[in-house]
Amino acid sequence: MVAWCTVAESADDVVVATNHGIWLPSAVERLGWHEIHKAAWSGRELRITPAEVAEERDGYTVLVDGPVVSFLLLEPGELPDQVRARVTRSVAYTTHHPLPEGAVRVVGRRVSGRNGLSWAVRYDSGTPVEQDEVTEVTDELVGAARSATETVD
Known about the structure:
By secondary structure, this protein is of the alpha+beta class. The chain has one domain (3-149). The chain contains two helices and eleven strands. The protein has helices at 79-90, 132-149; strands at 3-7, 10-17, 21-23, 31-32, 36-41, 45-57, 60-65, 69-72, 91-98, 103-110, 117-123. The longest helix has 18 residues, at 132-149.
């Protein structure tokens, strides 16, 4: 455990940050740092946008925003800083690319306990993700990103 805080709505509910991810109130499993699209801290409220898998493709995952969860934290301590630092640290590679229609963000993330990067894409709103041309270009972009980040022995 690296930080924790009780939630204002209930002293029995806590948010706990560990090396591997974050435990949220009433969650049955940990949310890994690589599974968080966005974490925002207002000074009193922690808002987390988790990533949800929309589709598994060869060598990468298509992600969409999950429902935002928020927690009022009256005595947050180090929790907001730890969340920000660990989510940011999980991102090893990120680029945003225009497509024939729309755009896509390609992300390589570190996953605690796993070697190498986990690759994912997140399409901008309105991008026709079902179109073959969009999929083909995305495949090429992810392939190029993987090649650019491979280590040479």
